Amino acid sequence: MPTFTAHGLQTLSHLIASRMGSEAVEAAEVADHLVRANLAGHDSHGVGMLPAYVRLLKAGLLVPNQVSDTVLDSGALLVIDAKRGYGQRAAGDAVRRGIAKAKEMGACVLALRNASHIGRIGTYGELAIAHGCAFTAFVNVADHGDAQATWGAAEARLGTNPFCTGVPGPNGLPVLLDMATTTIAAGKARVAYNKGVDVIEGALIDAEGNPTNDPTGFMRDKTGALRSFGTHKGGGLAIMCEIMAMAVAGGQGTVDERKGGTLNSMLATIIDLSKLGGAETVAARAEATRAHIKSARPAPGFSEVLTPGEPERRYAAKRLAEGIEVDEQSWADIIAAAAQVGITDAEIARAVGSNAA
Ligand code: NAD
Known about the structure:
The protein has 12 helices and 13 strands. The protein is an alpha+beta fold. It has 2 domains: 1-58 and 311-357, Malate/L-lactate/L-sulpholactate dehydrogenase, four-helix barrel (Hypothetical Oxidoreductase Yiak, Chain: A, domain 1); 62-182 and 228-295, Malate/L-lactate/L-sulpholactate dehydrogenase, NADPH binding domain (Ribosomal Protein S8, Chain: A, domain 1, 2-Layer Sandwich). The strands form 3 sheets. Strands 2-3-4-12-5-7-8 form a 7-stranded mixed sheet, with helices on both faces. A 4-stranded mixed sheet has the order 6-11-9-10, with no helix packed on it. It has a two-stranded antiparallel sheet with strand order 1-13. The protein is globular and about 50 Å long. Nicotinamide-adenine-dinucleotide binds at residues 42, 44-45, 117-122, 141, 160, 162, 164, 176-180, 184-185, 188, 264, 306-309, 311-312.
């Protein structure tokens, strides 16, 4: 499998986003976000998204250099409409403004509407946590085909609607839960399909609503669906992500007309822990809880008990040391997408070549 350094993939992603029309600051934020997702082990939200972004751009469903509207900035409330702008930039800017407001008011309720794909939600949690804040976000996915069948349904009616919440732990290491409300994120079905491997048990249903581990129907034929995690409880959380992000935050929802893009809306709360809880107290109490959880005897088949955020940190350490593998199909798709925005093979080689791991 082709393997690259983080820097090499970042250089290439920056080049592709620039040729798609983004000014330098936007291209840098998109590239940084994508490669961080790969480092965290979430290839579903890493550089493999670039071909989809080129498709959205060509269809006029992703707008580079879009200036978000501030719909409301009042007290602790901040409402921003991204109008199909690059999600990584729109959400990054919105969360940075939300953090500044939380520092002033104690907390911010942030409603972000209609951003193009915002990627890995944990990135925004990490941003808030790095500023001594607690972060909680309900996110929905709209404007394209439904992907998630909730408990009891034989067909999809929702997107993969992620939920994310976290606090700072000791030494700045976050305790961060960041997840799709489907058993696996849609991009993980894409990665499995590209690699020609099965997805994990319980993640998919076929066109008849029966369980399947083969991603071919879902990816190639657009049949079947991803299942909500955790039976009716995961499905319930997915439904509440939809309602919070669509009805409360005011973004588009799965009941609205679709144009075939990927729109994320988010209802987030950002709490300044210097005003509530105390950053050091929260970190110490979070660590005590983490240690208590990890002191449990591992269940049969497990070597250790992990807590949210640990797998991502381990992935990052490994991938920084050994490089980031990109499966053959994803790499071919990235090269084809780069060609569509006028990037030559020589430019690709220059971007990643000297940085190939
Ligand atoms: P995942 O299942 O790999 O991990 C989910 C959470 O569980 C993480 O917080 C992780 O730290 C924790 N975890 C993993 N293994 C664990 C273990 N053994 N013990 C304890 N905790 C463990 O993630 P996912 O659901 O596949 O989501 C992947 C990414 O997709 C996330 O970053 C999410 O934000 C993103 N996403 C984005 C969108 C979007 O529209 N922008 C939609 C869906 C998902």
